[in-house]
């Protein structure tokens, strides 16, 4: 039974951490779910790993899990939180909780929907920056390319920084090349709109919340990570723009 409870607890914690949740949220959720199941849980979560101990009636089980890849999925965070609340309220048992978590592992939205949302987000930001019709179309295409590059490289297990640099380079190159056919478009507006979906805003917000909660290690690490991703985006854009100007 200890192994089954540990499996559910670790699955919930890993899903939260890999979806961009704060470490204090992952720890509290794991401990809350353990108490609801009648077990004592001590969890220690960092941005790159989870350590937990489950105990009951003098029996202990400790497990460590390494987390290498992280993304942003607010839908999964909300889903795990809902499952933990229902478990704490007595609406779910261990088997039902495990089944609900397994169902939550599947993507919240299919790939075509994700690409469509990215294109809408890109053209929306470009519109907010004052973009006109042609710039909106180019920005939507640039956002599509940015997400396609990021998705393809993620399937190859490339680092977040390489993916950000490559996506920024492709977006800036696409915007600069589009200007050859459409001389009146604003390249900066298109680049900003195309890269909006890759800006680590959620990561920075999570870092601030961790710092406020006293999770200094996680907060500082997440801030550094967000700044490094932003730097990779800026570097990729600068290299592409410089290349086309040359």
Strand content: 5-15%
Total number of beta strands: 3
Radius of gyration: 21 Å
* Weakly predicted, low-confidence segments: none
Supply the helix-strand structural class. Answer: mainly alpha
Major beta sheet, specifics? 3 strands, antiparallel
Quick one: overall form?
A: elongated
Average pLDDT for all residues: 88
Distance between the termini: 66 Å
Summarize the amount of helix as a percent range. 55-70%
Q: What count of domains describes the coordinates?
A: 2
By DSSP (H or I, 4+ residues per run), the number of helices equals: 10
Q: Write the element-wise H/E pattern from the N-terminal end onward.
A: HHEEEHHHHHHHH
Strands side by side in the biggest sheet? 1-2-3
Describe the structure.
With 246 residues, the chain is mainly alpha-helical. It contains ten helices and three strands; from the N terminus they run ααβββαααααααα. It has two domains: 2-104; 111-245, no CATH class. A hairpin with a 2-residue loop joins strand 1 (40-46) and strand 2. The longest helix is centred in the last third of the chain and has 30 residues, at 216-245. The radius of gyration is 21 Å and the shape is elongated.
Topology, element by element:
Blueprint: H1 2-18, H2 23-36, E1 40-46, E2 49-56, E3 59-66, H3 74-88, H4 94-104, H5 111-128, H6 133-155, H7 160-181, H8 187-195, H9 201-212, H10 216-245
Antiparallel strand pairs: 1-2, 2-3
